[in-house]
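Hey everyone, long-time lurker, first post.

I ran two proteins through the pipeline my lab uses and got sequence/structure pairs for each. Pasting them in order. The first:
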Amino acid sequence: MITNRHSAHYLGAAQAGSFTQSVVRWTSRYGVFIALLVGVVAVSTACWINREEVKFIFDNRTDSLLCYYLSPEAASSARCPQEVGPRAETTWRPGCGYGEDADKIQVTVVLTVKEGGRQIYNRTDACRIWQESDGTFAIEQRRGAFVVADSLR
């Protein structure tokens, strides 16, 4: 009876040794890949944490579908990748640099009416100026004309 218990113990040790050898082989084979992957994740996370952004809130009080862009050139493309629905509010958080760069980077906001592409707002300012405002745009229509009020001073 004791012999069987010891045999089982030795068998378990042999299996454990085989497992350890497998882990060592696997680690040496994929160790460099894992190290590179961990490095890429660490650098990406550090950049993401230091990323500056602006929070814009578009309050569309009209019956028209609107589009918003980061440049007049993008607005002239006739595409509308970011929309503000009629009678809806949309939040947008574009990036504007990393750390101290936010003092230098210019951010442009362009609003158009989707149907026809008519531009109703275009303003450029430093990222920090936008960040210090509450970033809210109230869009209304009065006597057929669009009126955009922003929170910049």
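...and the second, right after it:
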Amino acid sequence: MNNTDVNNEVTTGSLEEATLADFEVTCIYNAIVTNELAFAQLTEAIDLIKNSTKYKKQVKQETNRLAKYLKDFERRMDRVAGARIGYMSDVAQIVQEECQVNTDQMLEAMAREFEKVNHSYPEMMASIELARTYCELAVLSLKRRMQEMEKKGIKDFDNISWLDQTKLLNHSTTVCELLFEGGVVNLNKNLMCKTSLTMIERKLTDCKLIARAMNESDKLNPT
């Protein structure tokens, strides 16, 4: 929920069905894939904002701040991943493609809700709100993964804690609040929004899907 006028509840699924042998790796890739989903939507939203008449003064300042943080984190990701960045990107891309139909459905449904309150840029507002939603999902998912890891006796979180996107969520929330117009928009009451987000949450925590993506990426990135 990014402000009192746009209501959008986000939850996250469980990875506890994964076996202990591959549990930590699955958790890490769940975090990476969820982050990448947010990054892709943020990139699209930032482009739409920059091409609108809203891109001025504080909106411009905060959008540029959001874009800079996103680029800085992607550079950090490149440094940490090193030679494995191609492999990680392919894993994320494969899972994103599985989620794309649901992302498109959410964008369409959100845009219709913003049209109802006569927002001057309903597609742009839907795009940045979905990006903010994915950032919130990334933050909640990471917390859930760390809790699950701890339950399985894994105490060292250094391999996953750096993937936290709380700052990105805060930046995207600020941009959403600056761009919002009109009355109350309750996305929780939109069946397509709720159903699509639930499907995405399930796919992101589908151990079999993550394993398949990793296997396919192995083939695309032979060592």
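Reply from user beta_strand_b:
Welcome! Quick read of the second one: DSSP finds eight helices and two strands in the chain. The two ends are 43 Å apart (CA to CA).
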